[in-house]
What we know:
By secondary structure, this protein is α/β, with parallel strands linked by helices. The protein has helices at 2-41, 45-55, 79-97, 110-120, 170-174, 187-197, 202-207, 235-249, 274-283, and strands at 62-68, 124-132, 136-143, 148-152, 155-159, 165-167, 181-183, 208-214, 218-223, 226-229, 258-263, 266-270.
Amino acid sequence: MDGKTGVSKQVGTGKRRKYKYLSFRYIFAEISAIALLFCAFYPNWESQFNKISLALGLCFKNLEINIITPPSKDIGTEPNAVCDTVNTHKNSITAALGLRKGISIFSVDLEKKRHLLRKNLAWIKATTIKRCLPDTIKIDVVERVPLARWQHNYKCYLIDEDGVILSDKDEDCSVRPDLPLVVGEGASTEAKILFAALNCCPDLSKRISSYVRVGRRRWDIYIDKIKVMMPEEKLQIALAKLDDLHRNLSILDHEISVIDMRIAGRYVVRGKQAKALLEKTRAFGKEI
Length: 288
């Protein structure tokens, strides 16, 4: 009989589980039916819901904005300038959202507002918006950081590492002379790769005044009055070689106009002191 008792207990447990499962289904079905009836007989149910939320004190009063600036290699930016930029960004977010205090906090379409910010404010890289009951909307914004000044078709732009244009105002470029200048078609999208290659030569990069993209294929870099023609491939190797030549031979301190490094292992130098530099390289056992 113990076996029968055991079987009966298992059957009873199974029935209870089945009834519990069915009860959840019935409850869900009833809630769905009530919601459908409510929507059918009250076409303006949304406005009624908003009125109820206002009566309960669930109305929008506070907007909290947190601007997150990713780590940047930019130096020389004054703290006051940073504060002014943050305040300007917060004001632009507030204006773009167009939220009116006192409305139901549930009447704010968060997804639509998020797309609105991304569409109208180019300096925003990512954003999240959430409701914090009873009366606050919180916004976290990841800011795009200027990487360089891009000059194209006689106009200057501020761009980030993805080549996204943050500003097309000349005055914004003029107040950021600390940012490198890249020139030409395609330079904006390739600048990130170029600067990554220059990480191995920090002293060299400090001497470069501008970078010109040639034929969307390669770079010419300008150091004082010297044009250095870089190869299409193995850019980092060529930059490291140039850095090595300068450290050993002070090649960039000579009166030369062009260093052609487009062909690996064969470097051509032009200028007044090109011949003297060639003799110097031979003396040091280094051939250009």
